[in-house]
Amino acid sequence: MLVQKLIFKAFLLASLLTFGPTFSATSQADIVELYATGAGGDGLLGTNIDPPSTNPGSGGLGPLGITLDTETNILVVHLLWGQENGYETLSGDVTMLHLHGPTESRAPDNFGEVNSNIIINLGNSLNFNPSASSGGLQDSFFVSNEEKAWVLSGRTYINVHTELNPTGEIRGYLIQSVPEPATGLVWMLIAGYGLALRRRR
């Protein structure tokens, strides 16, 4: 009887962890997390450009990452690049930083597509640091409903330009992050609960 009670309590806890966030999210704005990736890998990379850029550095997301509030249409962008931020230093200071789109197809089918139009000039931000070795950006931007749809459908990318690579040195296509629920844990607990019942009989 004690084993059954313990398994049942564990099952309730796992269910709460799995489905609880879903219920609480309904009363809040839908904050969508995004990550940067491409054919060359996750992050802001020269190999995410086709053909790859010359002597590229590398970059990625800062602690705040990239999020989109689908109610307010506010896009939060936190980017880092260069050796002092844990990445490879760029070939030179950043000359331009843009959010581009829409690509003709959705990620990952748009990896390597020709350059798209500029949606937001991220480099206009007062929080933009162009340093090749310790640069980055942390700011929020408003997007229209149409631009929001492009972001959510995987049809946008971030392009970091330098003098050596005027069409882009490092790039990352934006894709929604999909959290992995603890569904597997729930089913394992259900199976264990059933096994305990059979043994008791």
Kindly describe this structure:
The longest helix is centred in the first third of the chain and has 24 residues, at 2-25. It is built from three helices and ten strands, in the order αββββββββαββα. It has one domain: Immunoglobulin-like (Sandwich), CATH 2.60.40. It is globular and about 40 Å long. Helix 1 (2-25) runs antiparallel to helix 3 (183-200). The protein has 201 residues and is an alpha+beta fold. 25% of the residues lie in helices and 31% in strands.
Q: Summarize the main sheet.
A: 10 strands, antiparallel
CATH topology grouping? Immunoglobulin-like
* Tally of helical segments: 3
Give me the CATH architecture, please.
Sandwich
How much helical structure, as a percent, in the residues?
A: 10-25%
**CATH class category name:** Mainly Beta
Q: What gap, in angstroms, lies between the N and C termini?
A: 11 Å
Q: Strand fraction band?
A: 25-35%
Give the key terms.
201 residues, single chain, alpha+beta, Immunoglobulin-like, 10 strands
Short description:
The protein has helices at 2-25, 145-152, 183-200, and strands at residues 31-37, 44-45, 58-69, 74-81, 94-100, 118-121, 128-129, 136-142, 157-162, 170-176.
List the helices and strands and how they pair.
Blueprint: H1 2-25, E1 31-37, E2 44-45, E3 58-69, E4 74-81, E5 94-100, E6 118-121, E7 128-129, E8 136-142, H2 145-152, E9 157-162, E10 170-176, H3 183-200
Antiparallel strand pairs: 1-3, 1-10, 2-3, 3-4, 4-8, 5-6, 5-9, 7-8, 9-10
